[in-house]
Amino acid sequence: MGLTCLTSSMKPLKPNGLKEPMNPMNPKEPTNPNHPLVRADTTAPAEVAIADTERWLERAVIGLNLCPFAKAVHAKRQIHYAVSRATQPTDLLEDLIFELKELSALTSIDRDTTLLIAPHFLNDFLDFNDFLAQADDALAELRLEGTIQIASFHPDYQFAGTPADDITNATNRSPYPTLHLLREASIERAVESFPNPEAIYGANIETLQRLGADGWAALGVGPSGRKR
What we know:
Order of helices and strands: HHHEHEHEEHH
Shape: globular
Oligomer: single chain
Helix content: 40-55%
Largest sheet: 4 strands, mixed
Number of helices: 7
Number of strands: 4
Distance between the termini: 28 Å
Structural class: alpha+beta
């Protein structure tokens, strides 16, 4: 069902009174060959962003068992990686709407979940957090509330009430700003199959506290070419 269990019950920062934020290529390509996401998928930077994201998924999310549900969809290649070339909010919103439509049009067997990666935009976490309100609005306008939800990951993700260097922030830290599109039905199935889903968050915190900042850095799950 994807990575939703990484989204903890703690509250993220809420600037401006916003809501709480909640190949490597998938062989199923978007249907519009002229869409920017398709063109971006053929470039070296996009390939690097996807490789970095897969490495994070394999080493941190799956490797540390931060999300017990991620391994199955990864093994079945049901995760779609899309890289946006956006440098403006309107462009990223267009890409998000496109990916939401694509996900809702496909079966979960073909594509269970989507990671929309924005390596060129929203590097500031507060700006990223601001954008999440627009993402939620797009979901509502497409009448996909209750069908798809959007989770968020960012290199500098910070929960309210925690210092920036608190290791527990790593539960939602990814190599690049990333929007995770999840099927509600897949979430429900995964929760039903897991004996105690409420325990995942607590276990993640304990895992990260044992690992510590040095252990997290040693995983090498940051963007290529930068100090991780």
